[in-house]
């Protein structure tokens, strides 16, 4: 594949550690409008990244070469999204742990103690009613 943006694509692939030997490429006939041309040519690309299990199907262009390029671009986009999603999940987990472990504010402590004392008083006042009138 020699396209104008081929160099940029190769940089993205190496940055994401996607190797050509990890990709399975299949060419199938497309679906949708196009009549006889689309029914005869196998220009649709199905690209699978075996280690991650991601699969991309591209039939954007009439050319198989261009569809191969766009399928790789789409695969890069999906991998970047998955990586950033994993980073966000890890960051959210850290933030949650930090929030759970921080000490309670003074006002909240006082409110909890006040509620406990009030509850204790309510329970203390419970008791048997004496039969003495």
Give a short summary of the structure.
This protein has 133 residues and is of the alpha+beta class.
Structural write-up:
55% of the residues lie in helices and 13% in strands. The protein contains four helices and three strands, in the order H-E-H-E-E-H-H. A three-stranded antiparallel sheet has the order 1-2-3, with helices on one face. Strand 2 and strand 3 (54-58) form a beta hairpin. The N and C termini lie far apart (103 Å). The mean pLDDT is 90.
| Number of separate helices | 4
Low-confidence stretches: none
Termini, distance in Å? 103 Å
- The helical percent reads 40-55%
Region (Disordered): 87-133
Domain Prokaryotic-type class I peptide chain release factors: 16-126
Protein name: Protein subunit release factor B
Keywords: Transit peptide
Q: Which helices and strands occur, and which strands form pairs?
A:
Blueprint: H1 6-15, E1 23-28, H2 36-40, E2 44-49, E3 54-58, H3 64-101, H4 106-125
Antiparallel strand pairs: 1-2, 2-3
Helix pairs in contact: 1-3
Features:
single chain, 133 residues, alpha+beta, Double Stranded RNA Binding Domain, 3-stranded antiparallel beta sheet, 4 helices, 3 strands, elongated, Pep_chain_release_fac_I_sf
């Amino acid at each position: 594949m020699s396209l104008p943006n081929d160099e940029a694509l190769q940089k993205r692939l190496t940055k994401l550690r996607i190797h050509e030997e990890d990709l399975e490429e299949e060419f199938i006939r497309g679906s949708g409008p196009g009549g006889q041309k689309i029914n005869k040519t196998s220009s649709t690309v199905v690209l699978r990244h075996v280690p991650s299990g991601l699969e991309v199907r591209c039939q954007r262009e009439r050319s198989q070469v261009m569809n191969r390029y766009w399928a790789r671009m789409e695969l890069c986009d999906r991998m970047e999204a998955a990586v950033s999603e994993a980073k966000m999940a890890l960051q959210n987990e850290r933030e949650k742990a930090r929030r759970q472990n921080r000490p309670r504010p003074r006002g909240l402590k006082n409110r909890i103690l006040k509620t406990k004392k009030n509850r204790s008083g309510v329970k203390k006042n419970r008791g048997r009613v004496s039969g003495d009138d």
